[in-house]
Recover the amino acids of this structure.
């Protein structure tokens, strides 16, 4: 699987594969091929999400150091 595929492109391809498999009239060999491709796309999406989550765990402070990112709850200061 090409790592240069965007998350959105991978999700669109995955949705297309799921649609084909849900139709139910796919020959077994082709269904297995679709399933394998779908698993690759699923892993690619998962890896990309994990990468983004790691990026969101840190924000750049003014002095250039990284610190953990914590969401502020509304109503708290």
């Amino acid at each position: 699987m090409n790592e240069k595929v965007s998350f959105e492109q991978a999700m669109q391809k995955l949705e297309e594969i799921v649609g084909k498999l849900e139709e139910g009239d796919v020959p077994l060999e082709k269904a297995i091929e679709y399933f394998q491709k779908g698993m690759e796309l699923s892993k690619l999406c998962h890896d990309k999400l994990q990468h983004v989550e790691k990026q969101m765990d840190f924000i750049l402070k003014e002095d250039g150091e990284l610190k953990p990112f914590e969401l502020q709850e509304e109503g708290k200061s």
User: Anything to note?
Assistant: The first helix runs from residue 7 to 23. The chain has two helices and two strands. The first strand starts at residue 58 and ends at 60.
